[in-house]
Design brief:
Bound molecules: zinc ion
Structural class: mainly alpha
Largest sheet: 2 strands, antiparallel
Distance between the termini: 66 Å
Helix content: 40-55%
Shape: elongated
Amino acid sequence: MPTAPKTFKAPWAPRQAVSADRNKDHDKDRRKRHPWRNWYKLVAWKRIRARRLAADPLCVMCLADGVTKAAEIVDHVVPHKGDRELFYSYANTQSLCATHHNRDKQRMEARGEVQSRTFEPEIDVSF
Ligand SMILES: [Zn+2]
């Protein structure tokens, strides 16, 4: 019975896994440089996020412009930059739509002009 020929791979041919390995290394490198990226996966953050979206389901920046738009992103008012306390502070979060988060907020952060907001009293998120 004929069998399919074995694939021949020249020793000098590039390995298939090279680019996948490289991506993995790149991710690992990014995690090492920004370990807080993983904080977004943690239950504590997911609770804060869910609570903020439940409390403020609309984008606060759209509301300020008189527009009603559902929020999709929970943003840190003061950029946490790896500061655990700022990251996990419910009072430091706000609901934004993707447009405001990606365009306006990042532009403001890049310019260093982050909007200041009166903090609400800290609420216990351990429910
Ligand atoms: Zn918005």
